[in-house]
Structures are given as C-alpha cells and as structure tokens.
Amino acid sequence: MSEDDLPEPSRSPGEDSGSQGAPAPEAGADPAPEAGAQENAGSPVGRGLSRRGMLALLGGGVAGASIGVAGTAAVVAATGSSGEPGAGLSYPFAGAHQAGIVTPEQEHLHFAAFDIREGLGRDDLIELLQDWSYAASRITQGLDVSARGAFDGGPYLPPDDTGEATGIAPAGLTVTIGFGRSLFSTDAGEDRFGLAAQLPEHFTELPKMINDFIDRGRSAGDLCIQACANDPKVAVHAIRNLTRIAFGRAQLRWSQLGYGRTSSTSTSQDTPRNLFGQKDGTANIRAEEPDRLEEHVWIGESQGPDWAVNGTYLIARRISMTIEVWDGVQLGEQERVTGRDKRDGAPLSGGGEFDEPDFAATDASGALLIDERSHVARVHPSNNDGIRMLRRGYNFTDGNDDQGRLDAGLFFIAFVNAPERFSVVHKNMARDDLFIEYLKTTASSVFLIPPGVSEGGYVGQQLFEAG
C-alpha cells in the first residue's frame, strides 16, 4: 500500500493504550486508538509521527498512528527524575538543554551515527527530526514509539514498536540528538539543506593526534543519537526503533555499545573504574557545578550563533586499550603512569581522591611524587589553560581480534563548548603522556548537540528557524 493510501493523521485527543506493557483489548472493548490519540494524563499532545515515519515503522505498509511530542508538563531540573532508580526512573525530554549530558550517567549506552540519504532535502530532514523528537519524548517516559505500540495494532500488521523494552522501560533512558559538520556542508562544499550559512565558527574537526589510527567508516556522520539507560535492552530498543523510523530518509553509518559508565556526572555518584582498573573521571565537571558548566560546556552568547546557545559539542573517540600489555605491568608503574593510587584514586602527592594534586611535591630524595608525564599531570586544567570538560564515557568489549586479544577499551565521550578546547588538552596528552603507550584511537567524531526542546517542539528547531 502506498503512502497516499494512509489516512490523514488526526490531531484530536483520545486515549492511549501504547504504554510499555499495555494489555491487548479484551473482547468487546473499544478498538485500538486512532491516529492522533492522546498519551496518558500528564503528557502533552503535539504533532505525532509523520505519515512517512508511520510507513517506516511498518517497513512500507500501513503504520499505526500516534500522538504528540516532547516531554512532561512540568520540566524538572537536569538531575531530577520522576521515580526511584530502576525501571520506573525517567527524565524529561524537554528542557533548556538536552537530557543525557548532565543527567546522572546511566550504566549502558548505545550510540549511533546516521547519514541522510542522497537526494533528500531540507523539509525531509525537518520531518525526520520531528519524528525522532516525537518518538524520543514517548520512549523516555516508558511508552512505546506510538499509541498502538507493540501489541495494539492488530494481528495483520507488523507492530509499530519492537516490544523488547516492555516491562523494563524507561530505566532512566535519555535520548540525545546531534548534528555532524557534514549536515551543514559536505567535504566537497555541497550545501544540501541550506544550512551552510548557519555553520558555527567554532565547529571544527579535531586534528590528527599521535596514536590515531582512525577508521573513517566508524567516524563522523550527518546525525547522531546517544541513548543511555540503566538497562542495556532499553538503550538498544531506543536506537533500534529510531533507526526504523528513519527508514528511507537516513541510514545507519556506525554504532557502538557501551557498558559500565567511566564517569560521574553528579555528586550523588561514586567514581567508577575503567578496564585498566583505575578510577576514571575523578575531576569531572558535575551537574551541581553550574558556573563550570557555563564556562566549559554550554555554548554561550559570546560564542554563538544564537540558535546554538545552550547547546554543546560532543566529542566521541573509540579508544582501544592494550589490555594484555597493561595487565603485565607492575602496580607501581601503573600508578606512575596515571599519577594516582590505584586503590582509592588519590593523587600520588597525598590526600584523598578529590584533593588537588601537588605537582611540585617531592620525596625524601627530591624526586617528584607525580611524574611530569603522568596522565593526571598532562590533562590537569593547571597545565591546559584552565580548560575542563564534562566526560560521559563507557567501557566497551567487542569480542577479540585475530590474534586472540580482547578488542576492548574506552568509548570516550566529552562535552565542551568548542572542539578546539578539547584539542588543546588532547594534544598535550598525546605529546608526552605515559598512558599513550597503552592506547590506540580507532574512531573519532565531533557533533554539535543543539539546545533543548520546548514543549511541542523538535530537536534543532532553532537552527531551521534561523534561516
């Protein structure tokens, strides 16, 4: 059946049976809700999925219709939630900033990058972002991607929702959507969507670093989605269904699964460990530090452009660790390389984990307690013009290579208000850091994360209204 055979989506409110785990209607009950049906009380109504988005969910068939967009009626603070940790934990989709940045970092990640299909235009791109925003506003609250969802579309149609998150969502799910530099202008200078004039001055690519062995097929992209949750299946469900919605408009370029957060983005969280067994992200910016967020993370009015204010830049780097080599290194040498005690994360100059390192402290023989080439010394703000960043990385293990070594490491994610600021720190690390011997970067990407979504709006709306 063609797109023209679909009924025009209704905008009138009704009832929504599309929440996760909604039972099938009993005999004699009213049929499944029609297009435009309203979510359960407390969720606002917006435009719903486009007809093309509904078609995509059905793989080209008649799609289950659905209801409106974005968020909850009352937007709580960035670290707020509507429930206790567990399946019922949820974060609002709408707000001044996108969720999934200062949100307390969840335990699991599915990150995906997409390319817009050739021949599509500006209106197609806007429609896709509207559909993604609509679906994200539902699944982050534990609902299916549409009102008919996984079970209520009837026995003769493929379900709108794949259903694997039923009963376990939302599990703290956040969906964060970003734009690649190619969305504004391709390497060949093509302005596919009329956005070249809006390319921010600070949106630059990262320079090649020492130990960069970049696979271009696993880097960059026109669009990205970061899905984080406390249940891995919920994160995968998000990417799986948003990819289905994009069918015919955008195709998956690459993706990465991550587990076991390697940062803390809230003072309520303990410092986690990476696959080298080290505490990671001790000096990270936290959500409870608004002044540092304004200085280092959020794009400000002085940087601009206006449409990007309150957004940020996401740096994603897939860093392979030479696990087997590191495992054979003496404990004392491991601590010299990192500059911190492996057990408690304290700097080798003394004190506790969160005490500032003293890079001038010496032992009885006059030798520095913290090696000048240690990781903590090379990346510390005092050695990098005061630059800080908000880290949000994850461990990964992608099987093994053909020599029987683990293909494992850190999927490094950081948020900064200009990519060049990250480059300053990383160049300092790459030049002298003792850690480099044990690391190899195999993929690298930069995405601009637009500001948050207003009630009834969509991600990137400020950009398209700017001209």
Automatic annotation (TrEMBL):
Its EC number is 1.11.1.-. It catalyses: heme b + 2 H(+) = protoporphyrin IX + Fe(2+). Its main location: other. Residues 336-345 have a biased composition (Basic and acidic residues). One of its GO terms (cellular component) is cytosol. It is an enzyme of class 1 (oxidoreductase). InterPro entries: Dimeric_a/b-barrel, Dyp_perox_C, Dyp_perox_N, Dyp_peroxidase, EfeB/EfeN, TAT_signal. Its cofactor is heme b. GO terms for biological process: iron import into cell. It is found in: Cell envelope. Binds 1 heme b (iron(II)-protoporphyrin IX) group non-covalently per subunit. Residues 21-37 have a biased composition (Low complexity). Residues 1-46, 336-357 are annotated as: Disordered. GO terms for molecular function: ferrochelatase activity; heme binding; metal ion binding; peroxidase activity. Residues 271-453 form the Dyp-type peroxidase C-terminal domain. Keywords: Heme, Iron, Lyase, Metal-binding, Oxidoreductase, Peroxidase, Signal. Residues 98-259 form the Dyp-type peroxidase N-terminal domain. Involved in the recovery of exogenous heme iron. Extracts iron from heme while preserving the protoporphyrin ring intact. Belongs to the DyP-type peroxidase family. PANTHER family: DEFERROCHELATASE, DEFERROCHELATASE/PEROXIDASE. NCBIfam families: Dyp_perox_fam (TIGR01413), tat_substr_1 (TIGR01412). This is Deferrochelatase.
